[in-house]
UniProtKB/TrEMBL annotation:
UniProt keyword annotations, A-Z: Cell membrane, Membrane, Transmembrane, Transmembrane helix
Protein name: ABC-type branched-subunit amino acid transport system permease subunit
Signal peptide residues on this chain, from the entry's feature table: none
Keyword Nucleus among record annotations: no
Domain of life: Bacteria
InterPro entries reported for this sequence: ABC_transp_permease (IPR001851), LivM-like (IPR043428)
Transmembrane segments: 23-43, 55-74, 80-100, 112-132
Chief location category: membrane
Length: 153
């Protein structure tokens, strides 16, 4: 007798999802996430909005780690460096601290460089992408094997 047994065709490994239930829960969650800062800001003030912002930031980082470690099966924390590069770029371009730290920027913008959010996002993305390697290092044979298997022949 072998240890590998065939799975019967009537057996399903994944349960079918109820699309209506999934959409309803998704819409309710989205509404709560969007409304939470406004409700908490009105009830508790600016401090609790910042606490909620940090909590949501850590939830986003945990979800990214879950995708990388849980679904892909590798422990690669390198993407957090690109997240940090984009975060620092956003913080510096949207606050007056950039002009206080660099005198030549302070001379050009005496009241601070307050860049609009929709201009900061592509700049931060481009700067984070600029630091990303175009291929894995040579000492990563598994990653090279995966890339070779994806390369069209």
């Amino acid at each position: 007798m072998t240890s590998i047994q065939s799975i019967e065709s009537s057996t399903t490994l994944l349960t079918e999802k109820n699309l209506t239930k999934t959409l309803t829960v998704g819409i309710i969650t989205a509404v709560l996430v969007i409304a939470a800062p406004m409700i908490i800001g009105a009830a508790g003030g600016n401090y609790w909005v910042r606490v909620l912002d940090f909590a949501m930031l850590y939830v986003m980082l945990a979800l990214g780690l879950n995708v990388v470690v849980g679904f892909a099966g590798l422990l690669d924390l390198g993407y957090i460096a690109f997240y940090a590069i984009a975060a620092y770029t956003t913080a510096l371009l949207s606050s007056p601290h950039l002009s206080t730290q660099f005198a030549w920027i302070g001379a050009m913008f005496p009241h601070g460089l307050h860049t609009p959010f929709w201009i900061i996002v592509p700049i931060a993305m481009a700067l984070a992408a600029m630091f990303a390697p175009d291929r894995p290092p040579n000492d990563a044979p598994m990653a090279n094997a995966v890339i070779r298997s994806w390369t069209p022949k």
